[in-house]
Write a structure and sequence with these properties.
Length: about 350
């Protein structure tokens, strides 16, 4: 396969370094915006496509070699290949295969010829393999959002293997909540908020680490300083290319807390738009927020019925459960009071 960076003359007119992450993956949406000075409208499919689609597309529209490129990224740890391609039909209409989301998309804008856009979409539909979708490897993995050269990208990281047992590490009232969270987060084309709160050391982060092995979706870690921008135009291309994902925001106090009489926190409006507004209907994103502040300090709009998947306060383990866990971990101590997981695991330190 020839390299996209070397071959495509249409794209070489621009500084590619601004749109390529440290892992060599290209942000086609950011690139389109630079070329056309417009954010791309996007339509496409996440279903598998017949292998001859690219060859037939190039032949049908007589695309010269300078206007299309293919790019393979091989993950040596997992021994699988992520395949990208980009075809410039004309400057404002591109067809891309985005390996990260395993989707095929037509990128265009409001000035693009509607007839040509519709024709390309119909061709894409004809090459769909019925009832077959691409599987994206997501087990025990979190995708970290980062910014490079003013472009947002995702980098995948393996999560340390976690053998957490819910019944021994959390109080008895959590099991039903846990089962509901797992069921909802594994539901395709769903939306909503999960609010997990409690004192430090009570197991919120450990629980999220455990979830990565149970949820069959892409889980994207959003640093809290970016969270208030998730509904902004700067974020939309990345969200559009990763629908049906789970966003994780830890230490989200500054995002979810009410501003009281001073008005609503702007970040809350962004959360509501993505989790339960018009954007949620388009993107089907679910959001997990963790925080240490009391639930009474949270903007009440986040707590409305139909918007919440779950709202749970992690507390110290009841004394009998704390004792049982301590014994299981091999500590020869007597637990006389409710204790956090951190206190139990660090005995003797």
């Amino acid at each position: 396969m020839e390299n996209l960076l070397d071959k495509n003359e249409e794209l070489k007119k621009y500084d590619l370094s601004s749109f390529v992450g440290s892992n060599g993956k290209i942000n086609f949406w950011a690139y389109y915006a630079a070329v056309n000075n417009k954010v791309a409208n996007t339509k496409g499919t996440y279903q598998a496509i017949k292998e001859n689609f690219l060859k037939d597309l190039v032949k049908k529209y007589q695309i010269p070699a300078s206007k299309y490129s293919e790019f393979n990224y091989f993950d040596y740890d997992k021994s699988y290949t992520i395949y990208h391609f980009c075809v410039v039909i004309q400057e404002d209409i591109w067809i891309v295969k985005d390996g990260d989301s395993s989707g095929y998309f037509v990128l265009y804008n409001e000035n693009s010829p509607p007839k040509l856009v519709s024709e390309l979409l119909r061709m894409l539909e004809r090459y769909v393999i019925p009832n077959e979708v691409y599987e994206v490897y997501v087990e025990n993995k979190i995708f970290l959002l980062y910014e490079s050269y003013d472009s947002l990208s995702l980098q995948d990281f393996e999560v340390r293997e976690n053998t957490l047992e819910i019944d021994t590490h959390y109080n008895d009232d959590f099991l039903n909540v846990h089962e509901k969270i797992v069921k909802r987060l594994n539901t395709e084309n769903d939306k909503g908020l999960v609010l997990l709160h409690g004192e430090p050391g009570t197991g919120k982060t450990s629980y999220i680490r455990h979830l990565t092995s149970l949820i069959n979706k892409k889980m994207i870690y959003i640093p809290s300083e970016y969270a208030d921008k998730i509904a902004s135009p700067h974020f939309l291309p990345l969200m559009i290319s990763n629908p049906n994902s789970v966003l994780i925001i830890e230490d989200a106090e500054n995002i979810v807390e009410s501003r009281g009489e001073g008005g609503r926190n702007a970040a809350v409006s962004s959360l509501l738009n993505v989790a339960d507004g018009l954007l949620s209907d388009c993107l089907n994103l679910q959001i997990i927020c963790t925080f240490n502040t009391h639930i009474d300090n949270i903007d009440k709009a986040l707590l409305r019925k139909g918007r919440l998947i779950a709202n749970y306060q992690f507390k110290e383990l009841d004394t009998p459960k704390a004792q049982k866990l301590s014994d299981k971990l091999g500590f020869n101590t007597k637990i006389e009071n409710p204790s956090t997981l951190a206190e139990i695991y660090t005995q003797g330190e």
